[in-house]
């Protein structure tokens, strides 16, 4: 009946004194403890102790139901015997890493899950949750956002009031023609030391910097407003906020609460790449709106080109880390859209 | 039986001081028998299973990771053990997630509530911290004797919240002192069986030195960020500092800032660990932890590079490398043997505190 006999240490649990023993493991998974001169001290049935597969080639530990512990070195034979005798689902699961094929297929499976999360689960659930965000909440997001930006970045606009009024009026007309359901508000601000820019804040705010106003002519200005109206109609900011929340929940579940620096950087890059789609969507909306209002859609491309001259062209590599696609790609896409006006009309009204 | 009655009547029994069994001073070194290669496969299956189960496997992965490191760590011929039940960690994690989501949601709808949550958080923090340490130590064992933590709410609140605030209010002048007081609280309440750890002599000087050394690196890095930000705020486009450095220079500046911050933290942590553990004691045993800071810095820096190059696949090798390096410098010495520690009568703690502690990113690491 006896199968395996190994030197072991016995700990009674009340003190840290190690007692030298010999452990005998029988075929039916029962144990026998012998003293150093091979006299039997104790017999233990297979249901009177707990055994867990060691992680790696670590010492094997047998926890007896009376609170005592037997520790012995790693023995492959014991592992094989107990794995067949004391069967347990988790033990088989934990044995995975010793099986190369299983680990590799697991790896492929995990890659699949990441791809599904990235391409489907996260963006789709953000879109699905979007309608449930009440307009009052969006208003407060917009107001708080503008308040914060005013505090830390912006100073009041230096553009002539009359000129501001004129631009605002044109922007409002454009919004009416786009059948934008809310009352659009255009804010002018100075952003000293920064390049020209325009932002959209939910649910109906567009902020334009003085630098942008002086850089663009009126038609180009309206093209940019069209682009920003695209962000507002698609409610991109709310979507991004929702997505960021979902990403943080998923991150928390996957990495625990303390993701390391490298991991957070990887997540940042993932998150930024989502926004690239938003820019293309807003460009498409802008072009279609300009066509619908009988304006020249390529003005958006002109505006982008002017901005590009100011910013300087980015390298191809930097697009992977950036929230905006490459400007030259955007300009090309705008020309392509502008060349087929009829096909676009329908999508805008939708 | 005799041993047990002895234990109960003298909870502060100090090994080596009363039995007088071993008068010859001995030194005990730690050793680690695991390898990066072996741990790689465990790490990989942990990561994959965690991703596939959308994180539900996380607690099992955590237990297996700790089990791997503990059970391959030897001291005087016996290995350590981590025996926490992953299910209770999972419960704790789900509860933590629920609390965080609820707080986040409510704060979003009613911004005024946010201040209330901060106050509630500050009140709950010492409790969470204690629970977390109790949990961690309860399930860490050596020779079938568990560690234990017996900090009280009041002491925790004073040492960790009140003194920290004092430290910050005095423009950090008293911060190293407050940090010492925190570490003293954590260590002096830590037990192996019934035997208490003790932080040893007053180490306030060492803590001040630590903050001057590691803290100044962080300070300089933050300074670099501020200069960069001011540069773009107060100077026109492509003039001033921006023009002086050009885009490349500016990128370099940000990179230096990030690296400085990263390595400042690394150095600060290792110096703190060294100051905390070196010359601390466990009963009659003195702990030695003379880790060379610069060598350690090199290990961390090269690890970071390795992980970036291998897209983090080198992570398990790096973890084993750091762990082995630290263990090399950790030892116990004294006139008592490791056979003389007694069990403490039971402590039963649920995992909620532990994982809430994890979730809120608390600085409760008293690891070496």
**First-last Cα distance of chain B:** 36 Å
Give the strand order of the largest sheet of chain A, numbering strands 1, 2, ... along the chain.
4-3-2-1-7-6-5
Series of H and E elements of chain B? HEHHEEHHEEHHEEHHEEHHEH
Low-confidence stretches of chain A: 314-321, 346-350
Total helices of chain B: the number is 12
Rg of chain A, Cα atoms, Å = 33 Å
Q: How would you sum up the major sheet of chain B?
A: 10 strands, antiparallel, barrel
Runs of chain B in which pLDDT lies below 50 for 5 or more consecutive residues are 1-20, 234-242, 359-363
Word description of this protein:
- The complex is a heterodimer of chains A (350) and B (368).
- Chain A is 54% helix and 16% strand.
- Chain A is built from 12 helices and 11 strands.
- Chain A has helices at residues 76-85, 89-94, 100-129, 135-152, 161-177, 210-215, 218-233, 236-255, 261-292, 298-311, 327-338, 341-349, and strands at 2-11, 19-26, 31-34, 40-44, 49-51, 60-64, 69-72, 155-156, 185-190, 198-201, 205-209.
- In chain A, the strands form 2 sheets. Chain A has a 7-stranded antiparallel beta sheet. A 4-stranded mixed beta sheet of chain A has the order 8-9-11-10, with helices on both faces.
- In chain A, α7 packs across α9 (261-292).
- Chain B contains 12 helices and 10 strands.
- The longest helix of chain B has 38 residues, at 240-277.
- The radius of gyration of chain B is 23 Å and the shape is globular.
- Classes of the chains: A alpha+beta (350), B alpha+beta (368).
Features:
heterodimer, A: 350 residues, four-stranded mixed sheet, 11 strands, 54% helix, elongated, disordered C terminus, B: 368 residues, ten-stranded antiparallel beta barrel, 12 helices, 62% helix, globular, disordered N terminus
Mind sketching the topology for me?
The complex is a heterodimer of chains A (350) and B (368).
Chain A (H helix, E strand, L loop, with lengths): L1 E10 L7 E8 L4 E4 L5 E5 L4 E3 L8 E5 L4 E4 L3 H10 L3 H6 L5 H30 L5 H18 L2 E2 L4 H17 L7 E6 L7 E4 L3 E5 H6 L2 H16 L2 H20 L5 H32 L5 H14 L15 H12 L2 H9 L1
Parallel strand pairs in A: 9-11
Antiparallel strand pairs in A: 1-2, 1-7, 2-3, 3-4, 5-6, 6-7, 8-9, 10-11
Helix pairs in contact in A: 3-8, 5-7, 7-9, 7-10, 8-9, 9-11, 9-12, 10-11
Chain B lengths: L1 H8 L16 E7 L3 H17 L5 H14 L1 E3 L2 E5 L3 H24 L3 H26 L1 E3 L2 E5 L3 H17 L5 H14 L1 E3 L2 E4 L5 H31 L5 H38 L3 E2 L2 E5 L3 H17 L5 H14 L1 E5 L17 H8 L9
Helix pairs in contact in B: 2-3, 2-11, 3-4, 4-12, 5-6, 5-12, 6-7, 7-8, 8-9, 9-10, 10-11
């Amino acid at each position: 009946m006896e199968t395996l006999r190994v030197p072991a240490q016995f700990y009674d649990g009340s003190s840290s004194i190690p007692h030298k023993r010999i452990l005998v493991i029988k075929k039916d998974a029962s144990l026998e403890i012998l003293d150093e001169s091979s006299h039997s001290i104790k017999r233990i049935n297979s249901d009177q102790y707990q055994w867990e597969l060691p992680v790696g080639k670590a010492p094997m530990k047998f926890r007896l139901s009376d609170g005592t512990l037997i520790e012995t070195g790693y023995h492959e034979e014991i592992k094989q015997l107990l794995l067949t005798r004391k069967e347990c689902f988790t033990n088989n699961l934990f044995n995975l890493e010793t099986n190369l094929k299983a680990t590799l297929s697991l790896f492929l499976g995990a890659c699949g899950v990441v791809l599904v999360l990235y391409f489907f689960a996260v963006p789709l659930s953000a879109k699905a949750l979007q309608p449930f965000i009440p307009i009052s909440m969006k208003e407060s997001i917009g107001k708080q956002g503008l308040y914060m930006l005013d505090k830390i970045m912006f100073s009041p606009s230096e553009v002539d009031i009359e000129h501001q009024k004129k631009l605002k009026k044109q922007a409002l007309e454009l919004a009416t023609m786009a059948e934008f359901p809310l009352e659009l508000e255009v804010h002018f601000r100075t952003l000293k030391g920064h390049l020209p820019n325009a932002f959209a804040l939910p649910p109906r705010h567009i902020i334009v910097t003085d630098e942008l106003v002086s850089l663009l002519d009126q038609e180009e200005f309206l093209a940019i407003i069209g682009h920003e109206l695209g962000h507002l109609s698609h409610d991109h900011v709310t979507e991004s906020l929702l997505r960021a929340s979902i990403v943080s929940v998923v991150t928390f579940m996957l990495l625990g609460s303390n993701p390391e620096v490298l991991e957070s950087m990887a997540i940042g890059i993932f998150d930024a790449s989502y926004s690239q789609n938003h820019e293309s969507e807003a460009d498409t909306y802008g072009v279609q709106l300009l066509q619908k209002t009988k304006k020249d859609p390529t003005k958006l491309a002109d505006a982008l080109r002017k901005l590009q001259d100011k910013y300087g062209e980015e390298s191809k590599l930097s697009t992977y880390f950036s929230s905006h696609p490459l400007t030259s790609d955007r300009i090309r896409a705008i020309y392509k859209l502008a060349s087929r006006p009829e096909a676009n009309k329908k999508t805008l009204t939708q | 039986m005799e041993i047990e009655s002895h234990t109960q009547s003298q909870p502060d029994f100090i090994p080596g001081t009363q039995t007088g069994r071993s008068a010859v001073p001995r030194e005990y070194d730690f050793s680690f028998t695991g390898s990066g290669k072996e741990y790689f496969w465990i790490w990989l299956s942990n990561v994959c299973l965690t991703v596939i189960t959308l994180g539900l496997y996380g607690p099992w992965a955590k237990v297996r990771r700790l089990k791997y490191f503990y059970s391959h760590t030897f001291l005087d011929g016996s290995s350590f053990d981590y025996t926490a039940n992953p299910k209770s960690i999972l419960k704790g994690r789900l509860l933590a997630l629920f609390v965080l989501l609820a707080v986040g949601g409510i704060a979003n709808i009613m911004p005024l509530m946010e201040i209330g949550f901060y106050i509630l958080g500050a009140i709950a923090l010492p409790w969470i911290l204690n629970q977390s340490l109790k949990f961690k130590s309860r399930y860490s064992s050596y020779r079938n004797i568990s560690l234990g933590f017996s900090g009280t709410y009041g002491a925790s609140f004073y040492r960790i919240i009140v003194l920290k605030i004092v430290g910050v209010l005095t423009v950090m002048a008293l911060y190293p002192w407050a940090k010492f007081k925190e570490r003293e609280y954590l260590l002096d309440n830590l037990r192996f069986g019934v035997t208490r750890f003790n932080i040893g002599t007053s180490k306030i000087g060492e803590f001040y030195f630590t903050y001057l050394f590691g803290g100044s690196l962080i300070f300089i890095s933050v300074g670099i960020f501020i200069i960069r930000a001011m540069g773009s705020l107060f100077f026109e486009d492509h003039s001033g500092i921006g023009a002086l450095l050009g885009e490349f220079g500016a990128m370099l500046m940000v990179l230096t800032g990030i690296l400085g911050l990263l390595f400042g933290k690394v150095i600060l942590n290792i110096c703190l660990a060294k100051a905390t553990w070196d010359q601390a004691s466990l009963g009659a045993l003195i702990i030695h932890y003379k880790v060379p800071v610069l060598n350690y810095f090199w290990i961390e820096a090269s690890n970071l590079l390795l992980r970036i190059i291998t897209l983090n696949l080198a992570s398990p090798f790096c973890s084993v490398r750091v762990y082995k390096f630290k263990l090399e410098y950790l030892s116990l010495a004294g006139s008592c043997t490791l056979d003389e520690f007694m069990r403490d009568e039971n402590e039963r703690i649920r995992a909620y505190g532990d994982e809430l502690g994890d979730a809120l990113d608390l600085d409760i690491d008293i690891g070496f």
